[in-house]
Amino acid sequence: MTPEELLEQALALARSGVHNLNFVTPDHFWPHLRRLAAELRNADVDIPFIWNCSGYCNADTLRQQLDVMDIFLPDFKFSDTSLAKRCIGDDSYPQLARQAMQMIVERVGFLRPWDVSGDICASRGLLVRHLVLPGEVANSLGVLKILYNDFGTDVPISLMSQYRPMPACAQRDFLNRQITMAEYREVCDYAEKLGFRKIFIQPKYGDPNFLPDFNRRKPFAGNP
Questions:
Q1: Which pTM value belongs to this model?
Q2: pLDDT tens for each residue of 156-199
């Protein structure tokens, strides 16, 4: 796809009535997306741009993204450095993700407006996502404790239960099952104990129709 084709498709999507443009796991496309965002704004597209990322951020690049994007949905995957090392090969993830979230909050604040009715779309700010992993409740409790210490009880959080193991997990005998509802409840109970006031929860493991099958031309059955 050429930059011109990308712009044409993004303009068509923006003008179709969507509430935002959500760039998912987009970091490696940043130079292209920075150009796209500028062209969309020049074309009077005024809906929010969402940066939906892993939390594993380069500070210099993040500063550029903060000049362009409106809403940030970073993951905070790991508080446990050894788990980070085992999963992504870098035990500095907790420190890098923490620094990234602090930078984002300093620039754009927390997600707003916070409307639990779903009637009003958010326009700016940060919401932190955390995926609870099987057998790793302590990691999740550590994430919540860090968020509490750094940002207090008003930081918006999405606690996700949707983890599904892939075939390689069975081969490695690691993270090779879904979480249990008891594990998820323990994490949610701790968030309540800490006093967080803005939390999305996911008590039904998410929608399997949004588990991608990349052998299909349209990989998400839930979004044909």
A1: 0.93
A2: 999 999 999 988 999 999 999 999 999 999 999 999 999 999 99
CB crowding 140-173: b at 16 or more within 10 Å, else e: bbbbbebbbeebeeebbbbbbbbbeeeeeeeeee
Tell me: pLDDT of 153 over 80: yes
Contacts of residue 23, Cβ cutoff 8 Å, sequence gap at least 6: 29, 33, 49, 50, 51, 52, 69
